[in-house]
Amino acid sequence: MSVNADSLSGRVVLLAGVTGELGSHVARLLRARGARLGLLVRKPRQVAEITQAFAGEGVLVGSVGPQDSEGAAGFAKGVADSLGPIDALIATNGAFAASTVGKEPSGELAELLEANLLTVATLARAVVGPMRRRRTGRIVAVGAAAVEQASPGLANYLAAKAALHRWIVALDRDLEGSGVRALAVLPTTIDTASNRQTMPAADRRGWQSLDAVSEALVACAFGVPPAGPLYRVPA
Ligand SMILES: NC(=O)c1ccc[n+]([C@@H]2O[C@H](COP(=O)([O-])OP(=O)(O)OC[C@H]3O[C@@H](n4cnc5c(N)ncnc54)[C@H](OP(=O)(O)O)[C@@H]3O)[C@@H](O)[C@H]2O)c1
């Protein structure tokens, strides 16, 4: 995929999942390149911490619950009014669980669907109308390459990510000819502090760096888009 995203000066991004490892990495990268940011957390009590971490000109922080369509629309409007029209939604939020169906905590599948699909859909609804009207924009989410492997113990997680993939593919199809694209970046295992801690003995050779995954997200948001809506981060 061809990428020309060195300077994002003045471009406006709605970025979700910013309390997470990937989301905070993407926030730092976008800021370093001059983007204006609407940063989203899911709980009001997280706003102060993120404001402290990323405060500055051209940054707004807000909280929107995973299924709060009204809140999402309100925050998106506030961002557009004060920072400019939103060029891209980058939704890095998501959750993982390894479990055996029947032995997993009650409600796990619903929680995974909320974290991996419903939050993305809620935010996409808030930005897609204005993007259609401007005939430009990108909606970019984070899927998982693991969906293609069907590893044991991951039924609920893989179902949630697979649902996200199909939703993105269908949305991208709906948007055909509109100037707007919907895309998902599909990493393998990311080299995060959390993964290092929970899998200390793992062979990390196949893991992907936070930089590589972040660059793939920025490329999907601002570069020449990949041919299809599901973009596998190169090894
Ligand atoms: N780490 C990997 O190896 C890996 C591999 C493939 C794909 N991915 C995907 O990459 C993305 C980022 O991963 P990460 O490692 O940075 O994860 P992370 O550090 O656990 O961050 C996850 C983010 O998602 C948010 N979130 C969790 N549950 C949510 C819910 N129900 N509703 C809304 N937001 C929710 C978290 O918010 P709170 O702080 O409020 O919990 C946090 O901001 C995720 O989509 C993940 O599935 C990760």
Strand-helix topology:
Blueprint: E1 12-16, H1 21-32, E2 36-41, H2 47-54, E3 59-63, H3 69-83, E4 88-91, H4 108-134, E5 137-142, H5 155-174, E6 180-186, H6 193-198, H7 210-222, E7 230-232
Parallel strand pairs: 1-2, 1-4, 2-3, 4-5, 5-6, 6-7
The chain binds NADP nicotinamide-adenine-dinucleotide phosphate.
Q: What can you see in these coordinates?
A:
- The protein is of the alpha/beta class.
- It has one domain (12-232): NAD(P)-binding Rossmann-like Domain (Rossmann fold), CATH 3.40.50.720.
- The chain contains 7 helices and 7 strands.
- Strands 3-2-1-4-5-6-7 form a 7-stranded parallel β-sheet, sandwiched between helices.
- Strand 1, helix 1 and strand 2 form a beta-alpha-beta unit.
- Helix 1 packs across helix 7 (210-222), helix 3 (69-83) runs parallel beside helix 4 and helix 4 (108-134) packs parallel to helix 5 (155-174).
- It is globular, with a radius of gyration of 17 Å.
- The mean pLDDT is 95.
- Bound molecules: NADP nicotinamide-adenine-dinucleotide phosphate.
- The site of NADP nicotinamide-adenine-dinucleotide phosphate has 25 residues, from helix 1 and helix 4.
Q: How would you concisely characterize the structure shown here?
A:
The protein is of the alpha/beta class and 235 residues long. The protein has helices at 21-32, 47-54, 69-83, 108-134, 155-174, 193-198, 210-222, and strands at residues 12-16, 36-41, 59-63, 88-91, 137-142, 180-186, 230-232. The chain has a seven-stranded parallel sheet, with helices on both faces.
